[in-house]
Design a protein that fits this description.
Blueprint lengths: L4 E2 L9 H12 L16 H18 L5 E6 L2 H13 L3 E6 L2 H17 L2 E7 L20 E5 L1 E2 L4 E2 L10 E4 L16 E5 L10 E6 L16 H6 L9 H16 L2 H22 L3 E3 L10 E6 L7 H10 L2 E2 L10 E4 L6 H17 L2
Parallel strand pairs: 1-13, 3-4, 3-5, 5-8, 8-9
Antiparallel strand pairs: 2-10, 6-7, 9-10, 11-12, 12-14
The structure holds pyridoxal-5'-phosphate.
């Protein structure tokens, strides 16, 4: 197989070990003589996968007993609804830091309009194409919850610390979950799609504080009710079996790498190397505010005066084996996603490529 440097934003690079284990399980799952996609999920072999996956989550993120880990379908976009259905009563507060945050807010506004109540953005960085994280805001103490998007995948900004909130804190951590240590006890809910850092598309994780549930007065549709899935051990209905299997293998790999603190050190190093090059190389310039730069998605553009080189650089990088560095279609430029499974060598290759391109245009 041709080796490329995969900077895709999601779905994205996964640990080779997880892919190899998935190939094995597709052929013969746990010596059952059946593929993992042929077995019943009501078997002890499958229960063992669910249990291992759950306990890896708990161990890697230090999840306290107050919280439960769920593996569900629907994607992070369904997570927007899970948050609303389980926590919205009269008022929801959102920090609008990007398109995903805005989409989450849109759902809350829609439900508020239908059912009464309100959903507000306490602050927004839309005024500057979401290139920074607003800091001057007050979380309304009468809100049912405060929703943040910790990493803004499209714009390359990140809230890399656990904020203090006077009301239940909910975080979409789709694109930085398990990239750094998190104090789970501060959150009523952490959710996200797996396909950025923890596996293939098709499974959605939710880490929910059990005693934060059951507080809303309206009916919660069964499938959107976290209690349903807590009671059912994430198997109220047929779980996304194959994505969960690959997730489990990805978590196993992360544990072998030394866990979240160890991977965070590597992540910081990878991002720092690339940002240093962007700041040094006269052909490129970063787009995110320096203090809010994401360690997962590094966004940059051609420096003023060199804009016409954009397509040429994309083609040049492609010829050197770089994949997925085109920026999101809504912002343009470049984006290199440096998720956990992206090796340091790929970052070094991209930097070498940028330096070579600089030489060509001296
Ligand atoms: C990718 C992404 C989403 C959407 O995820 P889906 O699983 O495709 O619904 C939501 N939020 C963030 C921060 C993302 O990066």
């Amino acid at each position: 197989m041709k080796k490329v440097h995969n900077f895709n934003a999601g779905p994205c690079v996964l640990p080779q070990e997880a892919i190899d284990a998935a190939i094995e399980a597709l052929k013969d799952f746990s010596s059952t003589g059946m593929s993992v996609i042929e077995i019943s999920h009501r078997t002890k072999e499958w229960e063992a996968v669910m249990d291992e996956c759950r306990s890896l989550w708990k161990e890697l993120l230090n999840i306290p007993d107050t919280h439960e880990v769920l593996m569900l379908g629907g994607g992070a976009s369904m997570g927007f609804l899970y948050a609303i259905m389980n926590f919205f009563e009269k008022k929801a507060a959102y920090l609008e830091t990007g398109v995903w945050a805005k989409k989450a807010l849109k759902e809350a506004k829609g439900i508020a309009q239908t059912c009464g109540g309100e959903a507000v953005a306490v602050a927004s960085s839309a005024d500057k194409t979401y290139c920074y994280i607003p800091k001057d805001y007050t979380i309304p103490t009468d809100a049912d919850y405060f929703h943040i998007t910790t990493n803004n995948t499209i714009y390359g900004t990140e809230i890399r610390y656990d904020i203090d909130s006077p009301v239940p804190l909910i975080a979409d951590m789709s694109s930085d979950i398990l990239s750094r240590p998190v104090d789970v006890s501060k959150y009523a809910l952490i959710y996200g799609g797996a396909q950025k850092n923890v596996g293939p598309a098709g499974v959605t994780f939710a880490i929910v504080r059990k005693d934060a549930l059951g507080k809303v007065s309206h009916y919660i549709p069964t499938m959107l009710n976290f209690q349903t899935h807590i009671d059912g051990g994430s198997m109220f209905n047929t779980p996304p079996v194959f994505p969960i299997f690959v997730m489990k293998e990805t978590l196993k790999w992360l544990k072998k790498m030394g866990g979240v603190e160890a991977i965070n050190k590597i992540n910081v190093k990878k991002a720092q190397m690339l940002y240093d090059e962007i700041d040094r190389n006269p052909l490129f310039v970063g787009t995110a505010a320096k203090e809010d730069r994401s360690i997962m998605n590094v966004c940059f553009v051609m420096a003023p005066g060199h804009e016409e080189l954009q397509d040429e650089f994309l083609a040049f990088a492609k010829s050197k084996g770089m994949v997925g560095i085109k920026g999101h279609r809504s912002v343009g430029g470049f984006r290199a996603s440096l998720y956990n499974a992206c090796p340091v060598e790929s970052v070094e290759a991209l930097i070498a490529c940028m330096q070579e391109f600089e030489q060509l245009h001296k």
